[in-house]
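The data are quoted verbatim here:
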Amino acid sequence: MVYTKRVDGRKLDELRPMEAKIGIIPNADGSAYFKMGNTIAYAAVYGPRELFPKFLQNPKTGIIRCHYSMMPFSGSGERIRPGGNRRSQEISMVMNSSLQSVIDLSAFPNTVVDVYVDLPQTDAGTRCAAITAASMALAHAGIPMKDLISAVAVGEVDGTVVADLNYDEEAYDAVVSDIPVAMTANKKEITLLQMDGEISKASLIKALEMAAIATEKIYQVQKAALKNKFTKE
């Protein structure tokens, strides 16, 4: 049976409702909140500050470190075990790789910029929400950036390509592919592309085209939140 009607009633290319806020953590150098459907991400940025231990320092540039964490009762399924695990370490590395492509810390040698993202509530698309929130928080902190990054999960559910999968679609009793994608806002360069599942070449191309349109919608929400914050200041 082909998946023609989404479980939450959305159109195939429709995103879940979004909300973004800037400057929500007073003691951070930059911070942001991003909500997509029932997935919520809080991002806090600290730095640039001197990196310790010193043998990790780079005399030519600063570095970025990302820290991803889901709170114990945030998941749609079973309770999340507190503390670090392989999944959080993997997503932290993915975030780092995605974000550092647009950050220029050459003016801050021997320093580190720490990005902490906590998710108190999740319903799929957590790494995408984390990257989107972190990008806004870095901009709020005044970190030199070539562009903002927006991220969304696209994929295929029982033969139908859709945008912004939720938890029920990820767990749908059929062949499902989940493809987190992060793109720069202006040039639409891909900074993250992962896939869980199987998909044909034609469907993958369609999904990436859908991701480009979806990330543009997310970017408009990010831009509006940043503009609103800096206009008020």
About this structure: The helical segments are 86-100, 126-140, 167-170, 201-232.
